[in-house]
Amino acid sequence: MDALLSVEDFTMHYRTKAGWVQAVDGVSFALKRGQALGLVGESGCGKTSVAMSIMRLLPYNAEIKHGRITLGGRDVYAMASEEFRQVRWKEISMIFQAAMNALNPVYTVGSQIVEAIVEHEPETTEEQARRRVAELFDLVGIPADRADHYPHEYSGGMKQRAVIAMALACNPSLIIADEPTTALDVIVQDKILREMEEIRRRINMSMIYISHDISVIAEVSDIVGVMYAGKLMEIGEADDVFKRPRHPYTYGLMHAYPSILGAKRDLATIPGEPPNLMAPPAGCRFNPRCDRATDECRAVEPKLIKAGPEHRIACHNPVWTPSSGGERVGAAR
Amino acid sequence: MALPDSRLDRDTGDTIVSVKNLKKYYPVGRGLFRRQHALLHAVDDISFEVARGEVLGLVGESGCGKTTTGRMLVRLTNPTSGSIIVDQTDVSSISGADMGPFRQKVQMIFQDPYESLDPRMTIFDIVSEPLNVNHIGNLEQREERVAEMLTRVGLAPPATFMFRFPHELSGGQRQRVAIARALVVNPTFVVADEPTSMLDVSIRTGVMKLLTELREDFGISYLYITHDLAVARYLCDRIAVMYLGKIVEIAGSEEVIRNPLHPYARALISAVPVPDPAIARPVPNVRGGVSKPINPHPRCRFYERCPVAQKVCQDSDHPELREVEGNHFAACHLL
Ligand SMILES: Nc1ncnc2c1ncn2[C@@H]1O[C@H](COP(=O)(O)OP(=O)(O)OP(=O)(O)O)[C@@H](O)[C@H]1O
Ligand code: SF4
Ligand SMILES: [Mg+2]
Asked: What is the complex's ipTM, to 2 decimals?
């Protein structure tokens, strides 16, 4: 299978008065058609910046230092802006972080989606767009008559469904969902994630789920990428990453996470705090917090290297977890 | 981190908080011209106790009444009716002069470390404020006490933090400041309202650990409000599950997690995502829709969403909490 999306050694920094924020640094990954990638990492590690880079929606102070992003083989940043406008929303679309709070309160939800469709597909009549909205609402589980209601008449879960419908409006082959359920209660979150996964399978769409919650990522992703301080530290098949995390940060995250499953065990703490991205530590950006750090880690930046067939890590001293039969790492069972 | 289970031996049957038939109703507007108000039953006739040294978790979805309950316990919100006794003090009878001693015994930690600290005050001013208000110690003693607390919550050396402002600290550090402020007066009971929900995992564990240690060192009792059942499992001795203003289940933490009895508690626990891709969780058994408890029908609050509801659930009033199994209480007609 060809890669639908490929991000190659991508580096993007933000210019600010105080200096350069190194938000995305040397990030590489590929996504196949129909696959779901989960990007996980803590606040400020660069997840949204990666998403905005792919969408070519970067703010004025962003600067691409090097690297390439290709979509279906075409270089996203080599396309004329007119050409890319044909791609955005129709081939890739995005559910923005906290988008459900950004619905315009003075228009009905249905009319906002109609407007979005007509804007991106000028050939579509309003009548056709309205019919499409009815289909979309059906797909995401909102009663059709709710199209004429205003956002404040929707519950949180329904608003989030409407935002998903909007992302689906132009039949994209890839949707980036940035924290799509973070503000929702668990029962609603469960419903929405199940629905999104069902739609994804039904229309063989690709997804990038972005979340700080490793449990959510574990449940919806085929591939998991772990970001820390602007770097992709580990990426691999979900089963592999969760059973055999090789990067000390991934390992730490998984052991710091309480679970309702299995025996209650002690939670690990990762000492310290994530670095300031204006002056990240030399060498490995995780080294001041890492219990495996050596002089090499403080001097030499680790590259993303192969740790298994589909598994890559950026670390000089990976955690060794036996590949079979041995100690089970990850979820408490 | 130390597990609360092993600490149950400290439960000597001594009760620090006793809540009886607590209610909080809010009038909600019915349009501009109609004078008549509907009532939102934010907290609707709940009763529970917290033992000395115990951590009681209060869980449930947003809007179910968790925070309102917590605020009533520390007298930041006045109840519509019901009684609250905290450390032998009847909270509703506290007036002007008694407020000081009460504020010393009972503290609250809030969810948002970004909003709960005054941005114009230094860390020293913030943490020493409860000491000033209660006229405890002179300046020198206060400085000493603040330094001790900052060290205790992991902000060391304290001299490097004392004269900074909140915006110069990270989220985890700010939450530690909020904890230091709450504990500086040696309270006996603390309401912690989602104190870790805004923090990242790598920092959150440290704060959870700190709360557990402080409880062990100072014998503080907590009401721990959270929507995160996995966190509740780690921190709490018992868990109370709320739904639309009612406590529908209450039992030991492991018991609630492993053997939930109420249909809502069952759905809630089965919806918690698990950090293991190899596990396929069954679909939570619950009907859709969320209602608000505005002038609720005199029937089970969970009726509309309950997958197993019978005629009795519609015909009778909301069921009482009943001891269904040993020390395991649930409010359901069918149990
Ligand atoms: N327009 C901007 N100008 C300058 N710095 C920015 C800008 N947008 C983001 N940043 C910084 O870039 C870094 C990465 O931010 P980003 O929003 O990508 O993180 P994130 O992983 O999505 O975080 P969260 O989980 O909190 O949403 C942060 O340090 C952030 O403060
Ligand atoms: S490279 Fe070194 S410091 Fe970085 S994660 Fe690996 S062992 Fe730790
Ligand atoms: Mg983000």
From this structure: 0.86
